[in-house]
Amino acid sequence: MRIGEVAALVGITSRAVRHYHHIGLLPEPARRTNGYRAYTVRDAVLLARIRRLTELGLGLDEVRDVLADDAGRDLAEVLGELDADLARQERELAERRRQLARLLDRPLSDLGPVSPELAELLGAAAATDSPTAVKDREHLVLLDGAGGSAEVYAALRPLAGDPAVVALYERLDELAGAPADDPRICPLAAELVAAVPAGVFDAIPYGGDPHPGIGAALLADYPPAQAEVVRRVMAAMTARMRERR
């Protein structure tokens, strides 16, 4: 095989093959009388091995060490290993397609595929340009599918079209550039907690965090004053759930 043929067979570029020759990772093959390199199946197997190792994140020096350990192995053994690796990739690809199919089976919103229960809740939400309202919906999509989410959505349904809820979001918007000790924080947090229906506290599972670290990540998504409001709301809701257990 010529360089273009072996490169196409392995799924890399001729330039990459030449680079591997230049750094000594791939030995130079014998040349024909016309000066062209003549690649063998062994060369193709070695190139495929290099490609796969680099795809796994190994640096070229690390690849060199792995290949040194492979030296002298039987060709059939190396081919068998490559075949097993391809079979594993096929299984991973099939699983990714199954996951995609499940997403495509769900109702679609502007925020992506969501559960039917969340789609119904988002569809009933009052129209608003509030940035924090949009962010809240994004967070619901992020957590969609967690334990008890359908019950939580049902409990939140009375709030979906409530103008008072939009007003609370707009007050939260006003804190976008405020410091974390703004005097509006405490009363707004209290009103937000008071607005949450009691059924929500019953529906949210209390115990181990099903999404470790998600609380800190959500808070980091807000500027200081808004984050302090959300932190207080989260703490109050946790305390309320603890009281109801």
From TrEMBL:
<feature type="domain" description="HTH merR-type">
    <location>
        <begin position="1"/>
        <end position="69"/>
    </location>
</feature>
<dbReference type="Pfam" id="PF13411">
    <property type="entry name" value="MerR_1"/>
</dbReference>
<dbReference type="InterPro" id="IPR000551">
    <property type="entry name" value="MerR-type_HTH_dom"/>
</dbReference>
<feature type="coiled-coil region">
    <location>
        <begin position="79"/>
        <end position="106"/>
    </location>
</feature>
<dbReference type="InterPro" id="IPR047057">
    <property type="entry name" value="MerR_fam"/>
</dbReference>
<keyword id="KW-0175">Coiled coil</keyword>
<keyword id="KW-0238">DNA-binding</keyword>
<protein>
    <submittedName>
        <fullName>MerR family transcriptional regulator</fullName>
    </submittedName>
</protein>
<dbReference type="InterPro" id="IPR009061">
    <property type="entry name" value="DNA-bd_dom_put_sf"/>
</dbReference>
